Amino acid sequence: MLYIGVLLIILGVYATLNDVYYLNVLVKEKNIKKKEDFVIDNYYKIKATIGLFSFITGILALVNYFTI
Question: What is the residue extent of each domain of the chain?
Answer without folding.
Answer: 2-67
